[in-house]
Every structure is written in structure tokens, then in C-alpha cells.
Amino acid sequence: MDRRTVFNGRLLPVVLLLPQLLLTLFFFYWPAGEAVWSSLTTQDAFGQGWVFVGLDNFQDLFSDPLYLDSIVRTVFFCLTVSVVAISLALALAVFADRQIAGRGVYRTLLIWPYAIAPAMSAVLFLFVLNPRVGLLGRWLNRHGVAWDYTLNGSQAMLMVVSASAWKQVSYDFIFFLAGLQSIPRAVIEAARMDGAKGWRRFRTITFPLLSPTTFFLLVVNVVYAAFDTFGTIYALTQGGPGKDTETLVIKVFRDGVINQDIGSSSAQSVVLMLGVILITAVQFRFMGRRTLS
Amino acid sequence: MATLDIEGLRKSFGVTEVLRQIDLSLIDGEMLVIVGASGCGKSTLLRLVAGLEQPTAGRIVIGGRDVTAFDPSERDIAMVFQNYALYPHMSVFDNMAYGLRIRGLSRGEIARKVEQAAAMLGLDDLLARKPRQLSGGQRQRVAMGRAIVRDPKLFLFDEPLSNLDAKLRVQMRAEIRKLQRRLGVTSLYVTHDQVEAMTLGDRLLILHEGRPAQLATPMEVFEHPADTYVAGFVGSPTMNFLQGRLVQDGTAVALDAGPLVQLQGRRAGDAVMLGIRPEHLTPDAQGLMLAVDLIEPLGSETLVHGRVTGASGETITVKIAGAVAPVETLTVHLQADHAHIFDARTGKRIDPTG
Amino acid sequence: MRRSFNRPDYIAHTILVLGVLLFAFPVWLVFAGSTQDSDAIMRGDLSLMPHLANLSVYPRVLLHGTMGTEPVWHMLLTSFGMAVAIATGKIFISVLSAYAVVFFRFPFRQTAFWLIFVTLMLPVEVRIIPTYAVMAGFGLINTFTGLWVPLIASATATLLFRQVFTAIPDELVEAARIDGAGPLRFLRDIVLPVSGANIAALFVILFVYGWNQYLWPLLVSTDPALDTIVIGIVKMIGQETQTDWSAVMATAVLALLPPVAVVVLMQRWFVAGLTEGEK
Fold first, then answer.
1. How many distinct structural domains can be found in chain C?
2. Across residues B317-331, what is the average pLDDT?
3. Which residues of A touch C125 (CB under 8 A)?
């Protein structure tokens, strides 16, 4: 990574780095440190000071069945959203990569949803599937399907998974299309010479060659589903009905911001941080230091 | 225009010594070509002169002014890079004008200088273009133009032709030489191409592992190579080497391959290497016997590659005028007056003592 | 070797059209709904044909808002200001820090880089509570500054620029040094113009990122005057009874328009920037 030629000077680079470092310090390290500290302490009985309690908050957390449920739910949610979004995007990308008329138009029409906010995807889905206002929602009820995601937990989960995956397809599509275009033409031509066609060529040549992209997207999608979907879920169900769509981030928000349980929500924040660090480590382990080099 | 003096220059990167001891003086208007295999330190030497690296020891004096501690921009030099290093977002005009603008020249003066240089290089019609709209040869000219407009004391060329195809390279080589003569700017030219070195330089500096192997005119280097490295580096196909021993009081070499070669004059030494260029071996009834490996017809001449029969088994190339019929073996005569004698141990040239 | 254009690839067209419809349908539905009568929507009489005569709902929500929210123009302006501030701010500080790391040698250079790099792993969602506390300490709750400043520290953008700057050939730096350009001049005259496409691409990505923020503004602002359009629309759908549905739908369309327009208009740059940068 090192350049041969650099500029001289000690002060200038420090001045250039300062804004970034200060912001990082104030808004990343300080809060992160605070989270770790609060997760290890609790307010004393009189609300006067802080008592160090070690890992008590974590112990409480992991013996709370509601929290464990939330972990399982989040894992399920993340994987489902990722698999649905990735599969759909891959299928669309494979066909959009073909030499067909109007492919430029197709691409634009499949890329624009990138601009939709997670919370906006909730709004759009509401107008389609809400049992009272939504076009499809009402249609379902009129035809004998008892569709109401505000009451039925499974339907609510289906709803947030759909809305979250729907929003992420275009992102994955962009990457798959780029991945497909970077496969050397000669490799595909060699496969044609060998007589590999259609599904077989996709399964034995294209898909394996796309695996770095797929893996990268899997990581990104899991992180997206874990964190960015806060807006989607909060706007659609607020984690309900009951706690049926309450993912970890929704729970942190509810416990910390609404219920003001600082110790528990800090411990939850720390667990989430460890989770992200774990995912990132896995990513680096398998992708090499690609992002770094 | 100026002289360049390099005194006791050394450069190490960590524990690796890249340049061990360079002393060099260029007279005003001279073109010195620095040549050597990759990793010999030639580019480092150029970059030291440019001020892009700081020497570990030694001085660099341009036009009588010690510039060793100066920034590149204060040294009054111009450099032409291997990949041209044109600013991709600037037009040809702006590429040439950039350095002048930083120097604070007036608009009129900049325009005059750039147009003058462009006319000299035939770039008049391309001034508004961006580098990506130019061919390789045109980019090369722009890089030259950027150097010329500055009226520098010293031109530095860092393998400027190696990104061009063979035909264009020959053409640009001639152009660079003409231009340099016409402008009379003292120049250092780095290359790994020995043909470029022979045709361009007033003098050559052959570097070998960070040391000067020889500093002389091209013909002198060709005719009196200072050691086996230089001898093998200059000339194509490369010189043949045969092991032997000085006998008859130093007036002849007994080759390990058999034949005895009578030399002119007397030399001091024992185990030697006899160097002989492929064109100085001629088919003959008697002499060195070769087992032929490969015959390469080149049109006007033919190269025969073979191995000396017998224990020593040196690989030999023979250059023969015209075509050669396929043969299994070939006997060649050594033109003894073209033989070069080197010390087998040190590789240094051994000249007759009297 | 290319597939000829003679025989249309029906399978591909079918699948792609279905894909396009999957994304276009909800938006069309909302647009059509925005031109219809709220009571009709409530009764479920939503037609997919827009009543173009009723476009007056748009100026109405723009100027007055609906159901007690801020006027939509104000929320759009807040969103726009926030998105532009985040994009510009992020690019600004990331360019400077990446430039320092790539083009200089100084003590703790690697340390500084790693300090920034590690934050790649800490999205705002995982540090909601403590960040709120820090914000309160700075007095940034319910301020416009609070909406954007904390979001501009960014490892991703720094990494991207570091990659872009590292790819600038050494010879270009050397040529500039011989031409007499100092570090700041080199940044302005060479590095920024050469990285123009990357900056444009990143601007699009960050504009969309800024526009789409939800959790952060929800956290740092309770003042309706600081409601972004995304916050505003979610507030509107929260009150399911007695809702002026066509006004909500019109607001949704207006909320979608700016980021979608930016993405579509700058599609070429943005796609290249996204796939180069994040991979």
C-alpha cells in the first residue's frame, strides 16, 4: 500500500486528519466506551451514583427468554431477507446481462429502488397490503383469506421480511450485474465450446465465478437486515403484534429510548457491537483483506 | 544548459545498498546514457539527481550549484517518465503549461513557450486534446514538450521509449537525439535497452549491482569492454565466452575446448575467459567443433547455436552471412585479433602489457 | 458469438418485466391513490387509474402539510439540507484524512488509519443510547447540526478515497513535484479533478444515505420543525384512523422523488462508484 513518493511535512497531515479523528472520537469511541461502561454498572438504589456490577447485566440479558427469542428471531429474519433478496437479484441480473433489446432500460428500472428509504418501503407495502387501506390486503380479505398483519404474528413477519427484502434487491442486483460483467468473456466462450448450456453453464461456471460477490452480498445483506431495517419494521409493526417482529435493534430502541433501561440496553448495544465485529472478522477471514488493499 | 557533477554518491534503502559509489561529470550539452539490467540502480541514480530521493552520502552539483538538499522543483531540471505521467484531466496545453503557471509566468509568456515547444514537436493541432485522446507516440511528445517548455538546465529521461512499439521506438529515438542536440541541454538517459544506449549516448555508464562497470563512449564500450559483464551486456547476439589458460609466456590461450589461440602482444595472468563475438567466428575446416542445437535464419544472416564438443561444453552462437543448410556439427575459426581476454576470477579485462 | 437479436429472448423479457413491475407497482399504486378521494380509499375503492384532474393535492400538501404536520416543503427542505450536508461533509473530511494517510509519512500514521478503520464495524444502530448521551452533552439534541454532524465521520468513505488515491501513479506525483506543486496545490489541481468520478459517485450514494436516515433523526429530534420527510411520512401512517390518505400518498410520492431522481440521473457514475468502492 505504500507509495514511493510522498510529500514532506509533519504538521499538515495531522491537521488534515484532525476533523475525521475528532468526529470519530466523539461519536464512535466515546459512545462505544460509554456503552461498555454502562453495561458493567448499574445505578444505585437512590439514583445517586453508579455501582460496578461486572457481567451482571449480561447475565440478566442472556437469562431473559425474551432476549433469546429476539436473537433467534433476528437470525431468522436476517437469513430469510438475505436469501430472498439475493436469489431474486441474481435471477434478474442473469437475465439483464443477456444480449437483449432494451437492456439499458431494464437496468435503470431495476436499479432505481436503491433510492428508496427502508422506512419508505414500509409505507409502500402498507398501501399494498394493509388489510384496511391496502389494495391487495383488502382483496385478500374479500376472498376469504384472513389477512391482517397487525394481529397475526406470522403474517407480520412475512410482511417485514418482504418489505425489507424488496428494498434490498436493487442493491444486490447492481453488484451481481457488475460481477457478471467482470467474468472474462473467454471463460464463457470456452464453456460454450465445451458444450455447457443454460442452467448447467450457470450452475457449473457462472455461479461459482460469482461466489466472491455472493459472499460479499451475504455479509452486506445480513448487516442490512440486522440494522438498516429498523425503519421498515418500526414503521410497519413497531415490533408487534406482541413481540413477533421485534429484532434486536428494535428491542434496544424500545428498552433504551422508550423504557429508559440504560443498563440492559447498553449491554444489548455491546452484544450488537460484538456481533458486528464477528461478522466483519468472518468477512475478512474469507474475503482476504480485499477491502483494505 | 549546465554541467552535472556527481561526487561520491551512495544510496541505501535500509540495509540494502542500491548505489555504492558513483562519481560522474557531464560537460555542458552532453548526453549520458545510464544502462544496466533491472535492479542495477540506474533509476535510483536518476531519481537522486531529480531530488525525488535523498542520497545516503555524496553531492549532486548542477551548473556549479550544489543541489543535494534542494527540492525537485528548485533544481531546474525536467524529467520524462516511462509512463509519461501526463495529468489525465488536463489538455495538452495545460499539461505543458502547469509547471510554468506554478512558477508564476505571465499568460503571454506561457502561451508563447508552449506554442514554440508544440511547433518543435509537431503538437500544434493537438493542444486542446486530453491525454486519453492521443496515441502512444503523441503522449510521448507531450511528455517531451512538458520538459522542453521549462528551459531546464538538465533533462532526465527515465526509460521514455519502453512503452512504445518497436517501430515507433526507433523513430522517437532518433527524434529525441536530434532534439537534444538542437537544444543542447545536458541530459541523463536511463534505459535497459543496449541498442538505445549505443545509439543515443555521447557516453555510456554501465551500472552493475550499484557500481559503475564502465564509463566510456559507445564504441569504446563495444570494442574494449572493461569486464565480462559489460562484454556480455553490449552487442547482440551476446558475446561468447570460452574458458582457457594463458600459455607461451602470455602470448596465447589454450582453450579448455582444445584449440590454441595465438594472441597479439603479451598478457599477464593465468586462468582466463576468452570473449569472442558471434560475427567473429567463421566456418572453417579446422578450429572449434560445435554440436549444433538450433539454426535461426534471420534473412540476411543466420544464427547457429551450439555447444562446444568436449568436456567444457560452452554454449556458442555463431553469426554467418546468408543462409545455412541444416547440419549436425559445425567447425569454426576464431578471429584471434577480435578476441577479448578477461581474468577468469575477477572478470576484468586483461590488455597486452607491451 | 453474441446471441443474435433476430429472435427475441422471450424468457428474459418475461422475467425482467415481472421484476420491473414488482418494483414499479407499489409506487404506481401510491401515485394513483394520491389523486383519489380519501374516503374512497378508506372504503377500498382504490383505482389503479390516476385521476389527473385531482393533482391539486400536491400543492396542498406542499404548502400546508396534512393532519397537523409541518408543510411538506419544509420537511423536504430539511431532508435535502441534511442529505447534502452529510454527503458534502463526509466527502470533505474523508478526502482530507485519506490524503494525509496516503501522501504523507508521519508518526502514528497506521494507528490513525486503524482508529478510523475500526469504526467501519460500528453502525449507528448499535450505539444508540450512548450516542444520545454524548449528543445531549454537546447540546445537539433538537438542532439541525445534530442531524448531520455525527453522521459524517465515516470509515467507508475514507477507505474508498484511500483506495482511489493509492491508485494514482507515483510518476504523477513526481511530475507534479518537479513542476513545483506543493501538497495542497497537488490536492486541488491534480488529485481532486482526477478523482472527480469517484467523488460524484460517492455523493450520490451519500445523498441517498442521508435522505433515507430514519433512526437517527427519530433519536436526536423531537421538534416537529426538524422533521425530515421520512420521519414525517411515518408519523402520518402511524395514525391509521381518520387519515387523509390521498395526502399521505402524495407526500410519499414527493418523498421518493428526489433520491430516485438523483440515482437515475447519475446512474452511470453511481453504479461504478458503488461496485468499485464497497468491494
1. 2
2. 90
3. 227-228, 230, 249, 252, 272
Residue A150 three-state SS: coil
Are residues C214 and C235 located together in one domain of the fold? yes
Nearest CA in chain A to C231: A119
The number of CA neighbours under 13 Å toward the Cβ of A248 is: 31
Q: B4-231 sits in which CATH class?
A: alpha beta
CA-CA distance, A158 to C98, in Å (whole number)? 43
Instruction: Check whether residue C193 and residue C212 sit in a common domain.
Output: yes
Chain A contacts in chain C segment 165-224 (CB below 8 A):
166, 170, 173-174, 177, 182-184, 186, 208, 211-215, 219
- Which residue in chain C has the smallest CA separation from A33? C130
* Distance (Å) of CA A27 to CA A23, A143, A256, B68, B77: 6, 52, 18, 47, 48
CB contact under 8 Å between A127 and C120, yes or no, is no
Q: Is A48 on the interface with C (CB under 8 A)?
A: no
Question: CA B227, CA B80: separation in Å to the nearest integer?
Answer: 31
Cβ separation of C174 and A5 shorter than 8 Å?
yes
- C254 and C132, same structural domain? yes
pLDDT in tens, C137-182: 888 899 998 889 888 887 888 888 998 999 899 999 999 999 988 8
Nearest CA in chain C to B100: C179
Domain encompassing residue C29: 1-55
User: Last residue of some domain: C9, C26, C55?
Assistant: C55
Q: Is the pLDDT of residue B18 over 60?
A: yes
Q: Are residues C29 and C135 in the same domain?
A: no
The CA distance from C264 to A110, in Å, is 10
Residue length of chain B: 354
pLDDT digits (tens, 9 = 90+) for B194-205: 889 999 999 999
Question: pTM for the whole thing?
Answer: 0.84
Q: How confident is the model at residue C90 (pLDDT cuts 50, 70, 90)?
A: very high
Are residues C15 and C87 part of one domain? Answer: no
pLDDT band at A98 (very low <50, low <70, confident <90, very high): confident
Global ipTM: 0.88
B20-31 confidence digits (pLDDT tens): 999 999 999 999
Using an 8 Å CB-CB cutoff, list chain C residues near A264: none
So what's the pLDDT on residue A57? 83
The DSSP bridge partners found for residue B216 are B204
Q: Which residues in chain A (204-223) have CB-CB distances under 8 A to chain C? A: 213, 216, 220, 223
- Location of each CATH 3.40.50.300 domain in chain B: 4-231
Among C275, C273, C34, C211, smallest CA distance to A115 is for: C211
Chains in contact with C, where contact requires at least 3 CB pairs less than 8 Å apart: A, B
Give the pLDDT of residue A99. 83
Q: In the A/C pair of chains, how many CB contacts fall below 8 A?
A: 302
Interchain CB contact of A176 with C (< 8 Å): no
Q: In terms of Cα–Cα distance, which of C254, C236, C261 is closest to C31?
A: C254
Tens digit of pLDDT for each residue in C236-248?
Answer: 887 666 678 888 8
Domain extent listing, chain A: 65-247
Q: Which three cell numbers stand for residue A235?
A: 414503521
CATH number of A65-247: 1.10.3720.10
Residues C202 and C98 in one domain: yes
For B237-343, CATH gives: 2.40.50.140
Residue A13 has pLDDT above 60, yes or no: yes
Query: Which of C171, C178, C196 comes nearest B72 by C-beta?
Result: C178
DSSP secondary structure string, A214-235? Answer: HHHHHHHHHHIIIIITHHHHHH
- Segment A59-91, tens digit of pLDDT: 888 888 999 999 999 999 999 999 999 999 999
Mean pLDDT of the B45-64 span: 92
